[in-house]
Specification:
The complex is a heterodimer. The two termini of chain A are 18 Å apart. The relative contact order of chain A is 0.17. Chain A is globular and about 50 Å long. Chain A has seven helices and no strands. Chain A has helices spanning 2-7, 9-23, 37-49, 51-68, 77-88, 96-125, 135-171. In chain B, a hairpin with a 7-residue loop joins strand 8 and strand 9 (181-184). In chain B, the strands form three sheets. In chain B, strands 2-3-6-5-4-13 form a six-stranded antiparallel β-barrel. A six-stranded antiparallel barrel of chain B has the order 7-8-9-12-11-10. Chain B has four helices and 14 strands. Classes of the chains: A mainly alpha, B alpha+beta. Chain A binds chain B through residues 22-24, 26, 29, 31-34, 69-74, 115, 118, 122, 126, 129-131, 133-134, 137-138, 140-141, 144-145, and chain B through 103-110, 112, 114, 140-141, 148, 150, 154-156, 173, 175-178, 181, 183, 219, 222, 227, 237.
């Protein structure tokens, strides 16, 4: 049972990402915005398994998250694919403390990238209506999300990294 | 010599009592000039423990609510009767479904709530969802046990609405924050801060006359149209129970 759990640790944690995304704990929010949860899982996964794996699982995460959110016209897939690919090219730092802060910085950048791509889709979709009133709340959302993702990433990513490394070591 | 000292000690300014009386007099003059403000403020503090408490407030609010409910029911009956006479659209109150909010995303990009009633309970895509205060959004997706509601604040939401005072139609667009934007496609549209916005009688998506919100601010910088920020009456971030309306349009 224990071995099965360790073997499937990455899958189980992957399944929990959409659940946390849906749970949306308001007490963790800032200006009503939540951290961008999928990046916390995608960063360690891509760092351990490489760019192609990161890209593929970015796509998978995007597909799941798009299916549980209602926005039919906008997708999280482009942002997550790009993040997965870029994260795969980053190697873990030898210094633990620096590594922790790097997680925060990288996740903030990833969150900014995903948020910007999402806002670009909304703006291009509403371009025909000449409706640019969405721009200011959009920027606010991006900044709040970047801040929160960067704040939580050092704690959560390092735990995920440890878990995924542990599972990988046990498998080999 | 002795007599002189006795005379001088008998003067009024040598008596302590006189000074006390003068002090009281001056104080009363001050009170008079300040129109009793000191007294009133003093009374404010000492009477504070005896103010009508929470319990009394609740009783009064309950009475007001009951009164409003009775009035609302009477008006509703009148409304249904008149709509029948005029053969207008109407919503059925008998087929409403009560549902609990099981997931809530009211901040950021994704503004939706998930309810604990789905297609098994007869919820259909496009049904209107209301909460205490008024309209929340429309059902966008149903599963067997749940239904997902796109909130009015979502960038995906676009609905035809009605400004009650000037009786003009506009388009309510979610902006990704808590205040959706009302777009009036005319520069001369008569709209003021404080105007009440409800669902449009001409809408093919919603039942008519569901309260939505109040105009909070108006932006007139655009050449061709007027836009306004709307403060919603129903607050999705705190509502736990909602009504799903089955509409007969």
């Amino acid at each position: 049972m224990n071995e099965f759990f360790i073997k499937k640790l990455s899958t189980i944690s992957f399944i929990f990402i959409p659940i946390i995304f849906l749970w949306h704990p308001s007490w963790l929010g800032f200006l009503g915005v939540q951290p961008y949860w999928p990046l916390f899982w995608l960063l360690p996964w891509a760092m351990i398994n490489g760019s192609i794996n990161g890209l593929v699982f970015g796509l998978f995460l995007g597909l799941i998250l798009d299916s549980i959110t209602l926005d039919n016209n906008f997708s999280q897939i482009p942002g997550l694919i790009l993040c997965g690919f870029f994260f795969g090219r980053i190697k873990p730092h030898s210094d633990i403390l620096v590594g922790h802060f790097r997680y925060g910085l990288i996740c903030s950048f990833g969150s900014f990238l995903c948020g910007t791509l999402y806002l670009a889709q909304i703006l291009s979709r509403n371009f025909s209506d000449g409706n640019f009133l969405i721009f200011i709340p959009g920027v606010k959302n991006i900044l709040a999300e970047v801040f929160l993702t960067g704040l939580f990433a050092p704690f959560i990513c390092s735990q995920f990294m440890r878990m995924l490394k542990f599972a990988r070591r046990k498998l080999w | 010599m002795l007599n002189i000292r006795r005379i001088s000690s008998s003067r009024w300014w040598h008596k302590k009592k006189s000074w006390i009386l003068l002090g009281i007099f001056l104080f009363l003059v001050f009170v008079r000039i300040s129109k009793g403000s000191l007294y009133k403020d003093f009374f404010y503090f000492i009477s504070r423990p005896f103010w009508p408490g929470q319990f009394q407030k609740e009783v009064i609010i309950k009475s007001i609510n009951q009164e409003s409910l009775i009035k609302s029911n009477l008006l509703n009956k009148d409304n249904i009767r008149l709509r029948e006479i005029l053969s207008l659209q109407q919503s059925s109150n008998n087929n409403n479904i009560s549902a609990a909010v099981i997931s809530r995303k009211t901040g950021g990009w994704w503004r939706q709530i998930i309810l604990n009633k789905g297609s098994k309970d007869g919820v259909e895509i496009g049904s209107t969802v209301t909460g205490p205060g008024g309209l929340l959004g429309r059902v966008n997706n149903t599963s067997l046990f749940t239904s997902s509601v796109t909130l009015l604040t979502s960038p995906e939401s676009k609905l035809g609405v009605w400004v009650d005072r000037s009786q003009i139609n506009g388009l309510l667009v979610g902006s990704g924050d808590d205040h959706p934007i009302l777009i009036m496609y005319s520069k001369e549209a008569d709209i003021k801060v404080g105007d009440f916005v409800s669902s449009s009688p001409a809408s093919s998506l919603l039942p008519p006359n569901i309260p939505i919100g109040i105009v909070q601010s108006i932006d007139e910088t655009s050449q061709a149209k007027k836009t306004a920020k709307i403060s919603l009456l129903a607050k999705p971030q705190v509502i736990d129970w909602v009504q799903i309306l089955k509409i007969n349009i």
